[in-house]
Amino acid sequence: MGSSRNKFTSLLLMFCLVVLVRAEYAKYKDPKQPLAVRINDLLGRMTLAEKIGQMTQIERVNATAEAMSKYFIGSVLSGGGSVPAPQASAGDWASMVNEMQKGSLSTRLGIPMIYGIDAVHGNNNAYRATIFPHNIGLGATRDPMLVKRIGEATALEVRATGISYAFAPCIAVCRDPRWGRCYESYSEDPKVVQAMTTLISGLQGDAPSDYTGRPYVGGSKKVAACAKHYVGDGGTYMGINANNTIIDTHGLMSIHMPAYYNSIIRGVSTVMVSYSSWNGEKMHANHFLITDFLKNKLKFRGFVITDYEGIDQITSPPGVNYSYSVEAGIGAGIDMVMVPFAYTEFIDDLTYQVKNNIIPMSRIDDAVYRILRVKFTMGLFENPFADPSLAGELGSHVSSEQRNSFLSHFIRLDYSIFSDVSSSACRNTAKLPVKLSGNPWCC
């Protein structure tokens, strides 16, 4: 009798344990599940607050573990020069990122955050990182494979600091040398800029041929890339930064758009919108170019992110009608908003607009679906923390054999580019409206 009772009790306990395990099982946590199943399972569990949190990217100075968990923040960034400490080591960076990540993982659903940084010619915000020539110099090499190698090195040095997202490459086509950011452009020739999208493959890895349109990040030594600034930022009137690009549709599509085609083919994870306008309409509010063309026509499946406080720039002066800017930007198809400081205002405003049917829930779900797709693709749910074994990669490309390989390659290219320059080139043939005593190359 006692033996039967014990067997019954054991069976009951086993049954309860199975029920408990089943209750705790979540498909989105299972890496064996198909990607779409994981995304839909997680999206279906999320509240409005959790969804809007995923759409919010804040500055690192505000990203305490408490803020990350309270507002369900989906992403953090370092603005220019924003570092954890002067001369911070790779370990300092990784410790900071890990603390923020702990805040994200402590939430009900444990969705990891993604940390982004401007690694535009190497991991240039990090002390002792390898700094490579800027895009204008790399474009002059006409060597896409060299650019890819630089992307590979940059990815390792970004990952060394615990960061998994690089705001690069800039694929602007500079059409006016008066533009103060021409050095960020590979060329005035769209074909050259197209060729240099190999940087994306260096940063993210080589996407399989069937990945067209979908984000691809090939492992924990790679980072999510960002094609920017969509679109026409290099063609503004008189070269004035963030100004108006006055050009017909054919011109926009044949000059400024082609590099985005290549970026999407390479599986770029994100696209950043430009501060500039196209024929008077702010890019951050351009539904046709963001949703109808980029997302629907080109089948881009990653997420669209604003530039730094880009939502504010929709109005003139910036921020004068913030509610309108939020409605216009999110309605145009922006998925993640770079709102470094006034993030609670953004969260409150977007929440109000969704609850009052100004912005439909379907638009929010589309944005969050895209963000989650990138995070799952990156493997952040399985490996959310920094890999300490990569710390030694920071700066390693200036003190190793790879450095010598890079340098010798550049020396050969420099020779081939400049060896034909003769004294006859030192004549004043300047076409810009500036007064020169001679060719500026002749010091």
Automatic annotation (TrEMBL):
The keyword Metal-binding does not apply. One of its GO terms (biological process) is glucan catabolic process. GO terms for molecular function: beta-glucosidase activity. Keywords: Hydrolase, Signal. Residues 1-23 form the signal peptide. The keyword Signal applies. Pfam families: Glyco_hydro_3 (PF00933). Residues 47-374 form the Glycoside hydrolase family 3 N-terminal domain. This is Glycoside hydrolase family 3 N-terminal domain-containing protein. It comes from Aegilops tauschii subsp. strangulata (Goatgrass).
